[in-house]
Amino acid sequence: MTDFPDEFLWRMAIVSLVPALLMLAGHYFPIPSLTGRPMPLLVRYAVGVSGIIAGFALVAPLWATLLLLMAAAGAGAATALAYLVDHHIALYRRVLEQDFANETVHKLRTQADSE
Question: pLDDT digits over 23-60, tens only?
């Protein structure tokens, strides 16, 4: 067997079980029936990461929890920024496609009028 102290084994159990239970609760909690729409993706990410941090915070010292929280905040900010950039790129593409469609219709009408 291992030479881990019992306290360490209990901490390992808490760190793994608390987030698992929170993930299951979050998965089956009826958010859409309460709000009328599904939870946005970034909010789902934040809830999941918060569940992981909660399990860790129960057994870790405060300084370690704060380090994990800062790492999660940095990763969350980068994820949100990536989604924002992707959203703006998609909007720009739609504008370009609409401009191209309008220009094509204008050319076709001009050709039809000249014939």
Answer: 998 888 877 778 888 888 888 899 899 999 999 999 99
Which of left, alpha, beta for 18 (phi over 0: left; psi -120 to 50: alpha)? alpha
Name the percent of the chain in helix, strand, coil, to the closest 5. Answer: 85, 0, 15
- Entry pTM: 0.69
Based on its alpha-carbon atoms, the radius of gyration of the chain, rounded to whole angstroms, reads: 25
The distance from CA 95 to its chain's CA centroid, rounded to whole angstroms, is 26
Number of domains in the chain: 1
User: Residue 40: which domain range?
Assistant: 6-114
Give residue 67's identity as a one-letter amino acid code. Answer: L
